[in-house]
Amino acid sequence: VYSVSSDDGVSWSAPLQLGNLATQDVERDDSPRLTSDGAGSAMVVWNSLGTIAGGAGTDYDVFRTMTTDFGQTWTPVAEANENASVDGADRLDVNPRAATDGSGKWH
């Protein structure tokens, strides 16, 4: 969940769901990171233990969701690493980070 402030933190919205799986995800989610381009787009990345987003592995994997409208809507949750379903428990994906160059490229 997240909240939005449009007055420099004086007041905040009611909690909102982040991504399309918020009500279905019962796994452990850790290390969320928000990166913004300062112009209304943002990416949130986190690691999760379990099989969310339609079939990621049973180890820790990194997931992401994005907004381009100041957090009003978010893309469906997706694995950030392409091999999430097959990388195995010996390849724990933890402590994710995201970055942008401010020109639409996200890393």
Set down the secondary structure blueprint.
Layout: E1 28-36, E2 42-49, E3 60-67, E4 78-79
Give a brief outline of the structure.
The chain has 107 residues and is mainly beta. It contains no helices and 4 strands. Helix content is 0%, strand content 25%.
Structure description:
The chain is mainly β and 107 residues long. The protein is 0% helix and 25% strand. It is built from no helices and four strands. The chain has strands at residues 28-36, 42-49, 60-67, 78-79. Strands 1-2-3-4 form a four-stranded antiparallel β-sheet, with no helix packed on it. The mean pLDDT is 82.
Report the β-strand fraction as a percent range.
25-35%
The chain-level structural class is mainly beta
- The gyration radius over C-alpha positions equals 14 Å
Percent helix: under 10%
Number of strands: 4
Q: How would you sum up the global shape?
A: globular
Tell me the major beta sheet.
4 strands, antiparallel
- How are helices and strands ordered from N to C? EEEE
- Uncertain stretches: none
Q: First CA to last CA: what distance?
A: 23 Å
Keyphrases for this structure?
about 110 residues, mainly beta, four-stranded antiparallel beta sheet, globular
